[in-house]
Amino acid sequence: MSAINLIMIALRALQRNKLRAFLTMLGIIIGVAAVIAMVAIGEGSKQSIQSQLGNMGSNMITILPSSNVSGGVRIGGTSFQSLTIADVVAIQKNAEYVSGVSPVASTKGQAINGALNWPTTLQGVAPSYFDIRKLTVNEGISFSDADVATAAKVCLLGQTVINNLFPSGESPVGKVIRLNSIPLQVIGTLAPKGQSSFGQDQDDIILTPYTTVQKRILATIYFQSIYASAVSEGASEAATNEIIDILRTTHRLRPSDENNFQVRTMEELIKTLSSTSSLLTILLTAIAGISLVIGGIGIMNIMYVSVTERTREIGLRMSIGARGVDILLQFLVEAIIISVTGGLIGVVLGITSAKVITLTLGWPTLVSESSIILSFVVCAFTGVFFGYYPAQAASRLDPIEALRYE
Amino acid sequence: MSNGKILELQQIKREFVMGTETVRALKGVSFDVSAGEFVTIMGSSGSGKTTLLNILGCLDKPSFGDYLLDGINVSSLSRNELARLRNHKIGFVFQAYNLLPRTSALENVELPLFYNPELTTRERRERALGALESVKLADREGHTPSQLSGGQQQRVAIARALVNQPVMILADEATGNLDTRTSYEIMALMQELNQQEGKTIVFVTHEPDIAAFSSRTVMLRDGKVVKDSKNENVRSAKEALAALPPAEDY
């Protein structure tokens, strides 16, 4: 029997029982749609975490002062001041795997523009900070090394600060604001970065040269932290080791001494968050996979019932010349048509529901090709696998008994 | 084909083993049917009628003896070869019509042709339409069985039996579910196919009334042929139909 005949026979048989065919399909439709939508949610959240971290600068290295022992007394955490410009210069000079380094001297204060004021953070940084943190200047310009050298009273404003100090929408560039009592000229604005993955507003910030903060506000030679960037994400570890060596030298630590600073990279954080969302994806896929298997059992169930129900039809087909293999193939093709059609509808439904989820709930989703291919292959396989047994049962019927079956 | 004989049965025996007992349904049946004959096979229940029908229809094989259909010895064939033989040589007509539900008359008639790989879609359609034409149902091609009367359904079934141009039509109590008038209509159609188109018909029945329309009667009892006689004055189903009192109108 030709393939076309076979498909036509199967299609006509399905046509006679549209509702039953649809109900059988439903299991597969829901299974496939669930797999695609679930994987899309998992992948979407994974990607959004990764892109957020990427925004922060995934090759970023943070150097913080840490506790130290002084005369037997442990001096605590970040309050300890050990980072100076000498460290920054040493890293700049000697580290091979570091592409940029910037100190951070920050202070909190009240930013004032005329009658408006806003409590915010003033961060004193070097021009290289923009590269390290992936900051971009929206309007105006950034400050230069010359501004750093002269401790110039210039600043760049983050979006939140602009919103609060310049609510009418006028451009702040060129205006002079005050931080506490220090007047600062606004030379630029920062492109919005939004919330960090920890819910911190990254736009509530004013940037100035670090010398301005050190000399004009804090009167200190120390920094709260130093930011550096590795030449690449993969070089993070090498850069970290290098920085540790350099800082131990500049801090004149003996081999037996503990580090009085700590060096952190983003890599571990990325790994932790990614593995969490991978776990989520696996979990969701497993749940959806179960529904796919149930869909397959649904196919087997209905096909099996339909073999019993259609015993007379099978007997008739045999009496007019259908061979056992023709009956087997007919039922198998019916099962495959059901599962493939169900699979296609499921793919469309899955993609649609992923889009709907993004639109209504605002969850990021990412429909991956692999999930479409995987679920489709699984459902086609399900059709063959669960369709085969009933089909074989049908093909083994005795035509005489099948014809007389009541 | 040997001397125009469509069926040759030589000492056909069929035994069924039921547990420890052996039931002998046919105990040596022999007869021939020539091309163009209209034979009824009669017998009460338990006479081996159904067993013989299954063997004639190539649904079953004899335990002993030879059965030649159109010169082919059926006893030596495999299941698949039997299926092919049923498709090419035999047109079945059943008591319960056995039409596929929710399927148009035309598609029902086309069904056997799907198992005949030599035909194109167009040939299949044309042949099916031709077969419907010959049972005078060409105007009902789109109707499903539930939209047709019992007689019309049986005519669709006859068209389905004719569509593959078989050497023999094998009817199993084909009028058993029909009233007298419709039975006569079906028999008139059978006679027409037999007389005008020369179709060989083997009609299994237990009604003597129906047997009177055929040209020959084979009587079975207890698995043996007890009578095999030519019917000298074949009754015309058309005339019988005309002689029936007119259908009562309310």
**Low-pLDDT sequence parts of chain B:** none
What oligomeric arrangement do these chains adopt?
heterodimer
| End-to-end gap of chain B | 54 Å
- Name the biggest interface: A-B, 27 and 28 residues
**Rg of chain A:** 34 Å
Task: Describe it.
The complex is a heterodimer of chains A (about 400) and B (about 250). Chain A is of the alpha+beta class and about 400 residues long. Chain A has two domains: about 5-50 and about 270-405, no CATH class; about 60-265, no CATH class. In chain A, about 55% of the residues lie in helices and about 20% in strands. Chain A has a six-stranded mixed beta barrel. Chain B is of the alpha/beta class and about 250 residues long. Chain B has one domain (about 5-245): Rossmann fold (3-Layer(aba) Sandwich), CATH 3.40.50. Helix content of chain B is about 35%, strand content about 30%. Chain B has helices at about 50-55, 80-90, 105-115, 120-135, 150-160, 180-195, 210, 235-245, and strands spanning about 5-20, 20-35, 40, 65-70, 70-75, 90-95, 170, 200-205, 215-220, 225-230. In chain B, α3 packs parallel to α5. The longest helix of chain B is centred in the C-terminal third of the chain and has 18 residues, at about 180-195. The model of chain B has no long low-confidence stretch (mean pLDDT about 90). The chains are: A alpha+beta (about 400), B alpha/beta (about 250). The interface of A and B includes residues 16 and 326 of A.
